[in-house]
Protein backbone atom coordinates (compact mmCIF):
# COMPACT_ATOMS: atom_id res chain seq x y z
CA UNK A 1 0.00 0.00 0.00
CA UNK A 2 2.85 2.39 0.88
CA UNK A 3 4.47 1.64 -2.48
CA UNK A 4 1.23 2.46 -4.28
CA UNK A 5 0.85 5.69 -2.29
CA UNK A 6 4.45 6.68 -3.05
CA UNK A 7 3.93 5.90 -6.73
CA UNK A 8 0.79 8.05 -6.78
CA UNK A 9 2.59 10.93 -5.08
CA UNK A 10 5.48 10.74 -7.55
CA UNK A 11 2.99 10.71 -10.41
CA UNK A 12 1.26 13.81 -9.05
CA UNK A 13 4.60 15.59 -8.63
CA UNK A 14 5.56 14.79 -12.21
CA UNK A 15 2.18 16.04 -13.43
CA UNK A 16 2.56 19.22 -11.39
CA UNK A 17 6.03 19.79 -12.80
CA UNK A 18 4.67 19.40 -16.32
CA UNK A 19 2.08 22.11 -15.68
CA UNK A 20 4.59 24.49 -14.09
CA UNK A 21 6.69 25.17 -17.14
CA UNK A 22 6.33 26.71 -20.57
CA UNK A 23 8.68 26.90 -23.50
CA UNK A 24 9.74 30.07 -25.31
CA UNK A 25 8.95 31.32 -27.83
CA UNK A 26 5.33 31.13 -26.80
CA UNK A 27 4.18 31.90 -30.35
CA UNK A 28 5.93 32.41 -33.67
CA UNK A 29 5.49 35.53 -35.82
CA UNK A 30 3.49 37.93 -33.63
CA UNK A 31 4.91 41.43 -33.31
CA UNK A 32 4.09 44.02 -30.65
CA UNK A 33 2.19 41.53 -28.45
CA UNK A 34 -0.29 42.58 -25.79
CA UNK A 35 -2.11 40.22 -23.42
CA UNK A 36 -4.96 40.12 -20.93
CA UNK A 37 -6.79 37.44 -18.95
CA UNK A 38 -10.57 37.30 -18.78
CA UNK A 39 -13.20 34.69 -17.98
CA UNK A 40 -10.84 31.72 -17.99
CA UNK A 41 -8.80 32.63 -21.07
CA UNK A 42 -5.66 34.48 -22.04
CA UNK A 43 -6.05 36.77 -25.06
CA UNK A 44 -2.92 37.81 -26.93
CA UNK A 45 -3.28 40.61 -29.48
CA UNK A 46 -0.53 41.36 -31.99
CA UNK A 47 0.39 42.66 -35.42
CA UNK A 48 0.52 40.06 -38.16
CA UNK A 49 1.61 41.64 -41.43
CA UNK A 50 -1.25 43.76 -42.73
CA UNK A 51 -3.74 42.89 -39.99
CA UNK A 52 -4.29 42.71 -36.24
CA UNK A 53 -4.91 39.24 -34.81
CA UNK A 54 -5.99 37.86 -31.47
CA UNK A 55 -5.26 34.38 -30.15
CA UNK A 56 -6.94 32.93 -27.08
CA UNK A 57 -6.20 29.91 -24.89
CA UNK A 58 -7.06 28.73 -21.38
CA UNK A 59 -3.37 28.19 -20.52
CA UNK A 60 -0.33 30.15 -21.68
CA UNK A 61 1.36 27.21 -23.36
CA UNK A 62 -1.62 26.77 -25.70
CA UNK A 63 -1.28 30.27 -27.17
CA UNK A 64 1.11 28.78 -29.71
CA UNK A 65 -1.81 26.86 -31.22
CA UNK A 66 -4.84 28.65 -29.79
CA UNK A 67 -7.97 29.88 -31.52
CA UNK A 68 -6.96 32.83 -33.69
CA UNK A 69 -9.11 35.52 -35.27
CA UNK A 70 -8.41 38.60 -37.33
CA UNK A 71 -9.88 41.51 -35.38
CA UNK A 72 -8.78 44.45 -37.55
CA UNK A 73 -7.90 45.19 -41.14
CA UNK A 74 -7.80 48.63 -42.67
CA UNK A 75 -10.07 49.32 -45.64
CA UNK A 76 -7.40 51.76 -46.82
CA UNK A 77 -4.68 49.46 -48.18
CA UNK A 78 -2.18 52.31 -48.05
CA UNK A 79 -2.28 52.22 -44.27
CA UNK A 80 -2.10 48.46 -43.80
CA UNK A 81 1.69 48.47 -43.55
CA UNK A 82 1.75 51.42 -41.16
CA UNK A 83 -0.12 50.22 -38.09
CA UNK A 84 1.46 48.82 -34.98
CA UNK A 85 1.11 48.23 -31.27
CA UNK A 86 -2.44 46.92 -30.82
CA UNK A 87 -3.72 46.97 -27.25
CA UNK A 88 -6.99 45.93 -25.62
CA UNK A 89 -8.00 47.28 -22.19
CA UNK A 90 -11.06 47.36 -19.97
CA UNK A 91 -11.83 50.85 -18.67
CA UNK A 92 -14.73 51.36 -16.26
CA UNK A 93 -16.17 47.99 -17.27
CA UNK A 94 -16.06 48.64 -21.01
CA UNK A 95 -13.59 47.04 -23.42
CA UNK A 96 -11.70 49.18 -25.88
CA UNK A 97 -8.80 48.80 -28.27
CA UNK A 98 -6.17 50.98 -29.87
CA UNK A 99 -3.53 50.79 -32.58
CA UNK A 100 -0.64 53.11 -33.38
CA UNK A 101 -0.06 54.57 -36.83
CA UNK A 102 2.02 57.32 -38.38
CA UNK A 103 2.02 59.11 -41.71
CA UNK A 104 5.45 60.71 -41.39
CA UNK A 105 8.83 60.08 -39.81
CA UNK A 106 10.31 61.86 -36.81
CA UNK A 107 11.29 61.43 -33.20
CA UNK A 108 8.98 59.07 -31.28
CA UNK A 109 8.36 59.83 -27.60
CA UNK A 110 5.91 58.62 -24.92
CA UNK A 111 3.47 61.20 -23.60
CA UNK A 112 0.87 61.37 -20.83
CA UNK A 113 -2.49 63.14 -20.73
CA UNK A 114 -5.37 63.34 -18.29
CA UNK A 115 -8.28 61.13 -19.35
CA UNK A 116 -11.87 61.82 -18.35
CA UNK A 117 -13.53 58.42 -18.78
CA UNK A 118 -16.96 59.80 -17.90
CA UNK A 119 -17.04 62.15 -20.85
CA UNK A 120 -14.24 60.45 -22.81
CA UNK A 121 -12.20 63.59 -23.23
CA UNK A 122 -8.41 63.79 -23.30
CA UNK A 123 -6.49 66.77 -21.94
CA UNK A 124 -3.30 68.21 -23.40
CA UNK A 125 -0.53 65.63 -23.68
CA UNK A 126 2.90 65.95 -22.08
CA UNK A 127 6.10 64.25 -23.29
CA UNK A 128 7.74 62.40 -20.38
CA UNK A 129 10.78 60.91 -22.14
CA UNK A 130 12.81 61.59 -25.26
CA UNK A 131 15.71 59.63 -26.79
CA UNK A 132 18.74 61.33 -25.24
CA UNK A 133 20.88 58.28 -24.42
CA UNK A 134 23.13 56.25 -26.78
CA UNK A 135 21.08 53.07 -26.35
CA UNK A 136 17.99 54.94 -27.58
CA UNK A 137 19.51 56.17 -30.85
CA UNK A 138 20.45 52.95 -32.65
CA UNK A 139 18.72 53.11 -36.03
CA UNK A 140 20.07 49.99 -37.74
CA UNK A 141 23.09 49.20 -39.85
CA UNK A 142 25.42 50.52 -37.18
CA UNK A 143 24.03 54.03 -37.58
CA UNK A 144 22.74 56.46 -34.97
CA UNK A 145 19.90 58.93 -35.50
CA UNK A 146 17.14 60.89 -33.81
CA UNK A 147 16.29 57.88 -31.71
CA UNK A 148 13.05 56.26 -30.61
CA UNK A 149 11.12 55.86 -27.34
CA UNK A 150 7.99 53.87 -28.16
CA UNK A 151 5.45 51.38 -26.84
CA UNK A 152 5.07 52.56 -23.22
CA UNK A 153 3.46 50.13 -20.77
CA UNK A 154 2.78 50.71 -17.04
CA UNK A 155 3.93 48.53 -14.16
CA UNK A 156 2.50 48.96 -10.65
CA UNK A 157 3.70 47.55 -7.34
CA UNK A 158 2.51 48.88 -4.01
CA UNK A 159 2.56 52.66 -4.28
CA UNK A 160 5.21 52.73 -7.00
CA UNK A 161 4.69 53.28 -10.71
CA UNK A 162 7.03 52.48 -13.58
CA UNK A 163 6.66 52.70 -17.33
CA UNK A 164 8.64 50.51 -19.68
CA UNK A 165 9.29 51.60 -23.25
CA UNK A 166 11.19 50.32 -26.27
CA UNK A 167 14.32 52.20 -27.27
CA UNK A 168 16.00 52.51 -30.70
CA UNK A 169 14.73 51.17 -34.04
CA UNK A 170 13.36 47.65 -34.46
CA UNK A 171 15.70 47.03 -37.40
CA UNK A 172 18.67 47.32 -35.02
CA UNK A 173 19.66 44.34 -32.82
CA UNK A 174 20.06 46.85 -29.98
CA UNK A 175 16.30 47.52 -29.87
CA UNK A 176 15.65 47.04 -26.15
CA UNK A 177 13.47 47.78 -23.15
CA UNK A 178 14.10 50.74 -20.86
CA UNK A 179 12.40 51.97 -17.71
CA UNK A 180 10.92 55.15 -16.27
CA UNK A 181 10.11 55.41 -12.55
CA UNK A 182 7.82 58.05 -11.09
CA UNK A 183 9.89 59.82 -8.44
CA UNK A 184 6.97 61.35 -6.54
CA UNK A 185 6.40 64.47 -8.60
CA UNK A 186 3.64 65.41 -11.01
CA UNK A 187 3.35 62.50 -13.49
CA UNK A 188 2.61 65.00 -16.26
CA UNK A 189 6.10 66.48 -15.92
CA UNK A 190 9.16 64.95 -17.57
CA UNK A 191 11.30 65.76 -14.51
CA UNK A 192 9.10 63.46 -12.41
CA UNK A 193 10.37 60.37 -14.24
CA UNK A 194 13.79 58.80 -13.67
CA UNK A 195 15.12 56.86 -16.66
CA UNK A 196 17.28 53.72 -16.65
CA UNK A 197 18.19 51.20 -19.27
CA UNK A 198 18.44 49.08 -21.10
CA UNK A 199 16.76 46.67 -18.68
CA UNK A 200 16.06 43.85 -21.17
CA UNK A 201 18.19 43.50 -24.28
CA UNK A 202 19.62 40.99 -26.75
CA UNK A 203 20.59 37.68 -25.09
CA UNK A 204 20.33 33.94 -25.64
CA UNK A 205 20.23 34.24 -29.42
CA UNK A 206 17.35 36.74 -29.25
CA UNK A 207 17.77 40.15 -30.89
CA UNK A 208 15.61 43.24 -31.25
CA UNK A 209 14.05 42.61 -27.84
CA UNK A 210 11.22 44.97 -27.02
CA UNK A 211 7.61 46.05 -27.17
CA UNK A 212 6.43 44.45 -23.98
CA UNK A 213 3.32 44.07 -21.85
CA UNK A 214 2.90 42.94 -18.25
CA UNK A 215 0.13 40.64 -17.15
CA UNK A 216 -1.05 39.34 -13.76
CA UNK A 217 -1.35 35.98 -12.09
CA UNK A 218 -3.86 33.70 -13.74
CA UNK A 219 -7.29 32.91 -12.32
CA UNK A 220 -7.33 35.70 -9.80
CA UNK A 221 -9.00 39.05 -9.74
CA UNK A 222 -6.71 41.42 -11.65
CA UNK A 223 -4.86 43.61 -9.16
CA UNK A 224 -2.14 46.19 -9.59
CA UNK A 225 0.07 44.17 -7.23
CA UNK A 226 -0.07 40.94 -9.22
CA UNK A 227 1.91 41.79 -12.34
CA UNK A 228 4.67 39.22 -12.50
CA UNK A 229 5.16 38.23 -16.16
CA UNK A 230 6.76 40.16 -18.99
CA UNK A 231 5.61 39.47 -22.57
CA UNK A 232 7.74 40.85 -25.40
CA UNK A 233 8.86 40.13 -28.93
CA UNK A 234 12.29 39.27 -30.31
CA UNK A 235 13.87 37.92 -33.49
CA UNK A 236 16.51 35.36 -34.41
CA UNK A 237 17.93 37.76 -36.99
CA UNK A 238 21.16 39.22 -35.62
CA UNK A 239 20.65 42.44 -37.60
CA UNK A 240 17.21 43.03 -36.05
CA UNK A 241 13.84 42.86 -37.77
CA UNK A 242 10.71 44.98 -38.19
CA UNK A 243 8.70 42.41 -40.11
CA UNK A 244 7.05 39.04 -39.49
CA UNK A 245 10.25 37.24 -38.43
CA UNK A 246 9.60 37.92 -34.77
CA UNK A 247 8.18 35.83 -31.97
CA UNK A 248 6.62 36.29 -28.54
CA UNK A 249 8.47 35.38 -25.33
CA UNK A 250 7.54 35.43 -21.65
CA UNK A 251 9.98 36.00 -18.78
CA UNK A 252 9.65 36.49 -15.04
CA UNK A 253 9.48 39.82 -13.21
CA UNK A 254 10.58 39.71 -9.57
CA UNK A 255 10.34 42.51 -7.02
CA UNK A 256 13.24 42.77 -4.56
CA UNK A 257 13.01 43.56 -0.83
CA UNK A 258 12.95 47.27 -1.63
CA UNK A 259 10.05 46.82 -4.06
CA UNK A 260 12.05 47.40 -7.23
CA UNK A 261 11.45 45.19 -10.27
CA UNK A 262 14.11 42.83 -11.58
CA UNK A 263 13.69 41.63 -15.16
CA UNK A 264 14.90 38.31 -16.53
CA UNK A 265 16.88 38.54 -19.75
CA UNK A 266 15.67 36.48 -22.74
CA UNK A 267 16.57 32.84 -22.28
CA UNK A 268 17.72 30.47 -24.98
CA UNK A 269 15.00 29.41 -27.39
CA UNK A 270 13.13 26.27 -26.35
CA UNK A 271 14.18 26.83 -22.72
CA UNK A 272 11.47 26.30 -20.11
CA UNK A 273 10.23 28.96 -17.72
CA UNK A 274 7.54 28.93 -15.04
CA UNK A 275 4.04 29.97 -16.17
CA UNK A 276 1.81 32.33 -14.19
CA UNK A 277 0.95 31.07 -10.69
CA UNK A 278 -2.36 29.30 -10.33
CA UNK A 279 -2.21 27.74 -13.78
Automatic annotation (TrEMBL):
InterPro entries: Glyco_hydro_43, Glyco_hydro_beta-prop_sf. SUPFAM superfamilies: Arabinanase/levansucrase/invertase. Residues 258-279 are annotated as: Disordered. Residues 1-21 form the signal peptide. Keywords: Glycosidase, Hydrolase, Signal. One of its GO terms (biological process) is carbohydrate metabolic process. GO terms for molecular function: hydrolase activity, hydrolyzing O-glycosyl compounds. Belongs to the glycosyl hydrolase 43 family. This is Glycoside hydrolase family 43 protein. It comes from Clonostachys rhizophaga.
